[in-house]
């Protein structure tokens, strides 16, 4: 007869202390989060200075420019929130754009050391990693007992379809680590006797969040306001809410004062400064969430790679929901299970979370409902609230981003409850494991699509441009710089980050005035020269040039004070291939025969024409 296990092997070893197990769990979450962050951005890590995000190279170029300009502005004591280096002669109000000033300042040494493209990639990767880790910290230290539950919730939120979608070059929206910090510090205001310190900390955090992701801060504030109101009005919480209300309001008052002081100049520029505008340059109907998108799978996921992805988003960077039917079903089941076993206080929290998700889901549908790509005539609540100040500058589709943290919390609460429950039948445990796997595995992210982009000309990198542009003078590439032709800002970013000096450009990728009904628009209002060059580069057809055309172009040159026009051998087009030969023939027809300088064609504009 074989010996019993206890006699053959001795007493079973004692499990490691809880602190050791928790530290192991923390380390595993850190490693998984880091692996996912590098995995998603791996296409860029192959060569950060050469590769670009395929579906959004224009935004990547913009953020690279913002990093270079912000660092340059701070080190040269220039205004980081308004510049005349682009959109000559009017300049650009960066306070109504996405400035990421804090990132530009903090990472300025790195930008000067390794260049804007590599710094952009470092920040993008750190954003994803930090979002996972800060959510994990909030969940594991404040909201759930199980490290596994915290890991599931945090990793889902950080690598949810919306976050991976915005990883296509959006340094502002991928800064999701700000949200759990704002939640933590907001609820810290309930503590008695600490309202001054807690309000001060939250005020500074609000100012930082505004400088990195103002639209994200606005959505977070709306979501927290809705949650707190619903939570406090629930019968189970009214007594507690009344007790903490005075301290909470005092802390909020301090927050408002501190944030107001720190943001007084940016807010003045935003709402009353030069080159401001009202509303947005984007159509809220186009940039709204399709109802069917909530049940669809994203393109950059295992399900998408298997051919289950869709094109229901306005563009690949705005897959803000795309949770898939399995996850929606699992979330509903988890919510019901939690509700049935919850005490009144937990039910109040679930009620507030459910209402929050429903409200922001409906608002994300925009002014009118769309179903599976077809626009209906059914008006939606956003048609009313979208007319309000500040709200009219937001894209309704992005309101769906609020839903992902709600789902992550529900998943974390469910795993936490399952871990704390007494042992169950193995089939039940297996069913839960399979349910989570079926819902989450298809959403595992795949790497962002990347391509090689056209190099910055040696004419710029060698500093030769300084021989053809006076100090603070105006140089323009052709086509002129806009979102789909970002070369001008890429060249500027290189010159600024390599301490070569400054040159200004007409146009640029920015939001400014000039849209219909006083709203904003992307880039400057087109003029003759920019329209002619766009036509040539886009279609390959050289426009007919008359004496009248020449006079209009000369007027544009004087308006922009252009000294030098440059055509690179390879022009980067963010949406299509650019016909450089047609641009050369068009430039020759407008300005005469060009010079060959280094690796560019160059036209010097006589003083009489500028």
Automatic annotation (TrEMBL):
The keyword Membrane applies. The keyword Thylakoid does not apply. It comes from the Bacteria. Residues 68-386 form the DUF6311 domain. The chain crosses the membrane at residues 27-45, 94-114, 120-139, 146-164, 170-188, 195-212, 218-236, 248-268, 321-338, 350-369, 389-415, 427-445. InterPro entries: DUF6311. Coiled coil: none annotated. Keywords: Membrane, Transmembrane, Transmembrane helix. Signal peptide: none annotated. This is Dolichyl-phosphate beta-glucosyltransferase.
């Amino acid at each position: 007869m074989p010996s019993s296990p206890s006699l053959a092997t001795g007493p079973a070893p004692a499990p490691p202390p809880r602190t050791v197990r928790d530290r192991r769990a923390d380390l595993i979450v850190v490693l998984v989060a880091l692996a996912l962050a590098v995995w998603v951005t791996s296409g860029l890590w192959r060569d950060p200075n050469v590769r670009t995000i395929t579906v959004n190279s224009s935004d990547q170029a913009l953020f690279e420019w913002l990093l270079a300009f912000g660092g340059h502005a701070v080190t040269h004591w220039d205004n980081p929130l308004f510049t005349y280096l682009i959109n000559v002669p009017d300049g650009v109000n960066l306070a109504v754009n996405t400035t990421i000033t804090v990132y530009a300042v903090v990472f300025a040494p790195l930008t000067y050391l390794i260049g804007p493209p590599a710094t952009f990639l470092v920040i993008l990767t750190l954003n994803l990693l930090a979002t996972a880790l800060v959510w994990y910290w909030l969940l594991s230290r404040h909201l759930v007992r199980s490290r596994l539950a915290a890991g599931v919730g945090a990793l889902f939120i950080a690598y949810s379809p919306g976050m991976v979608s915005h990883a296509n070059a959006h340094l502002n929206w991928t800064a999701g680590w700000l949200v759990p910090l704002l939640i933590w510090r907001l609820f810290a205001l309930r503590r008695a006797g600490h309202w001054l310190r807690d309000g001060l900390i939250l005020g500074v955090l609000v100012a930082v969040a505004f400088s990195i992701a103002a639209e994200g801060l606005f959505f977070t504030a709306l979501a927290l306001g809705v949650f707190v109101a619903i939570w406090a009005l629930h019968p189970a919480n009214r007594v507690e809410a009344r007790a903490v209300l005075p301290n909470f309001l005092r802390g909020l008052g301090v927050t408002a004062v501190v944030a107001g002081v720190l943001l007084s100049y940016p807010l003045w520029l935003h709402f009353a400064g030069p080159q401001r505008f009202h509303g947005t340059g984007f159509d809220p109907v186009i940039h709204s969430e399709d109802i069917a998108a909530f049940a669809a799978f994203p393109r950059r996921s295992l399900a998408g790679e298997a051919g289950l992805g869709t094109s229901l988003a306005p563009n690949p960077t705005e897959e803000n929901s795309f949770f898939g039917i399995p996850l929606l079903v699992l979330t509903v089941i988890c919510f019901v299970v939690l509700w049935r076993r919850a005490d009144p206080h937990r039910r109040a929290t679930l009620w507030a979370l459910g209402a929050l998700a429903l409200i922001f889901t409906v608002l994300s549908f925009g002014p009118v409902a769309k179903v599976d790509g077809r626009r209906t005539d059914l008006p939606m609540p956003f048609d009313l609230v979208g007319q309000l100040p500040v709200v009219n500058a937001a894209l309704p589709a992005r309101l769906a981003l609020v839903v992902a943290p709600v789902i992550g919390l529900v998943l974390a609460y469910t795993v936490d409850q399952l871990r704390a429950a007494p042992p169950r039948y193995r089939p039940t445990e297996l069913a839960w494991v399979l349910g989570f796997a079926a819902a989450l595995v298809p959403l595992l992210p795949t790497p962002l699509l990347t391509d090689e982009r056209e190099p910055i000309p040696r004419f710029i990198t060698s500093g030769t441009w300084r021989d053809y542009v006076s100090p603070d003078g105006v140089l323009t590439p052709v086509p002129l710089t806009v979102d789909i032709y970002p070369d001008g800002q890429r060249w500027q970013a290189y010159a600024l980050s390599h301490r070569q000096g400054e040159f200004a450009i007409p146009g640029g990728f920015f939001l400014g005035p000039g849209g219909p009904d006083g709203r904003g628009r992307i880039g400057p209002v087109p003029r003759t020269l920019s329209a002619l060059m766009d036509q040539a580069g886009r279609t390959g057809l050289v426009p007919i040039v008359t004496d009248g055309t020449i006079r209009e172009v000369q007027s544009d040159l004087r308006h922009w004070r252009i000294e030098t026009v440059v055509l690179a051998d390879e022009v980067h087009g963010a949406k299509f291939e650019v016909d450089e030969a047609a641009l050369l023939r068009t430039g020759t027809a407008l300005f005469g025969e060009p010079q060959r300088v280094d690796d560019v064609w160059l036209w010097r504009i006589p003083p009489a024409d500028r």
